Amino acid sequence: EADPVAIVSTWDFGKAANAAALARLNAGGTVLDAVEAGARVPEADPTNHSVGYGGYPDRDGHVTLDAILMDEDGRVGAVAALEDVVHAISVARLVMEKTPHTLLVGEGATRFALQQGMQRTKLLTPEAEKAWREWLRTARYRPVANSENLPGPPGSALNHDTIGILARSRDGHLAGACTTSGMAFKLRGRVGDSPQAGSGLFVERGVGGATSTGVGEEVTRIAGTARVVASMRAGLSPQAACEEAVRHIARLRGDAIKGMQVGFLALGQDGSVGAFALLPGFTYAVTRHSGAAEVLPAKSLF
Ligand code: SD4
């Protein structure tokens, strides 16, 4: 194909992230550099309540971040329940590059980030704090599907959301990243699917990559992105593989997932793209090597 897909990512705000990722690729960066640069865009945006700075806190008022990045060589770095540092994805990268480990959590992750020279930053913005205090008045933990796309007033969006981003260079190298502040008003200590390899993100050489968004517990339960990539390895298209995983969740969980959103996004080794969700409303951004970009609605099961 003359103008193959370079970057895909979850939700409408993925478009700006894709542009930053493509710019990094075009400047000579690797696919890992590209997905890191892309993930940093929503992380630094205080108007995005789902990722990084400006994210909604847990029930106790702490903003805690989960992030992972992975490439086709099986290089993985991740952090979970990270506090006081804006760019969780860059801490994940340092875990990958500077330690023998794949995942650091909580206080140890924060300490590692600060030791690596990252700046301590208060992540709870006045707007997010106000939404949290409003939530405390009723304290009903009820995730709202697709709230990442809702522009409404503070507190109207009870989900946090997440960017998952996948890159494919012109010569076919693959990497992905996923970063989030997790579900809004989650229990302290809760970790979602996003920072877990095989749940929020998976990449395999010669096959492709996949990432997920939505209610993380439903993804973790089936090791969602490992499943999507396994289906692609077995010959399914990225689209068919995403559909298979969503159908599996629905079969497995029945009424328990009523009203919950889960979305998968996949990128094949050949640059083909697939996306599918439980509910309508999941969107994703596709950017080609020329820079041509579009935001598309994913099909859904219900
Ligand atoms: C989580 N999957 O922490 C993330 C949140 C998300 O759309 O993607 N919401 O469960």
From TrEMBL:
Cross-referenced InterPro entries: Ntn_hydrolases_N, Peptidase_T2, TAT_signal
Presence of the UniProt keyword Hydrolase in the record: no
Taxonomy, superkingdom: Bacteria
Keyword entries, A-Z: Signal
Keyword rRNA-binding attached: no
Pfam families: Asparaginase_2
PROSITE patterns according to UniProt: TAT
Protein name, per record: N(4)-(Beta-N-acetylglucosaminyl)-L-asparaginase
Organism of origin: Sphingomonas agrestis
